[in-house]
Amino acid sequence: MLNASFLAGGVRDRTSVAVIGAGAIGGVFAQAICKAGHDVSLCVRSPFEELVVATGAREERVPAQIVADAGQVRPVRWVLLAVKAFDTPGAKRWLTALCTRTRAGDDRRTCAGVHPG
């Protein structure tokens, strides 16, 4: 679970995070995670140059890596799924690429270093 200290940069080590979905929710979380000093890959259907979050009259460019091809990502420590319900099946290709197998022969996957209970 993402907690306040993670978003506030309270984690000493940079953490690799993938945000699947670049809508309002995904964009704001990508912005907060980048501001906290973590590395963010923003996984999108259609590529674009950069993420810009507008809050009122203020715009902020977010230094997230924009990726439109699941074949170009590697497993990460955290994945935030921020898609609408009808896009959930399309997230499978991203989850498959971003998460690793728990153990050989097991179809379950986990983010790097985070194991299911």
Task: Explain the overall architecture.
The protein is built from three helices and eight strands. The C terminus is likely disordered. The chain starts with a helix and ends in a 7-residue tail after the last strand. It has a single domain, classed as NAD(P)-binding Rossmann-like Domain (Rossmann fold, 3-Layer(aba) Sandwich), CATH 3.40.50.720. The protein has 117 residues and is α/β, with parallel strands linked by helices.
Brief overview:
With about 120 residues, the chain is α/β, with parallel strands linked by helices. The chain contains three helices and eight strands.
| Sequence of strands across the biggest β-sheet | 5-2-1-6
What fraction, in percent, of the residue positions are helical?
A: 10-25%
Q: Per the principal axes of the C-alpha atoms, what is the gross shape?
A: globular
Q: What is the CATH superfamily?
A: NAD(P)-binding Rossmann-like Domain
Query: What kind of sheet is the major sheet?
Result: 4 strands, parallel
Structure classification: alpha/beta
CATH architecture descriptor text? 3-Layer(aba) Sandwich
How many whole angstroms does the radius of gyration measure?
14 Å
CATH domain fold name = Rossmann fold
CATH C-level name = Alpha Beta
- As residue ranges, the low-confidence spans are 113-117
Q: Which H/E pattern describes the elements?
A: HEHEEEEEHEE
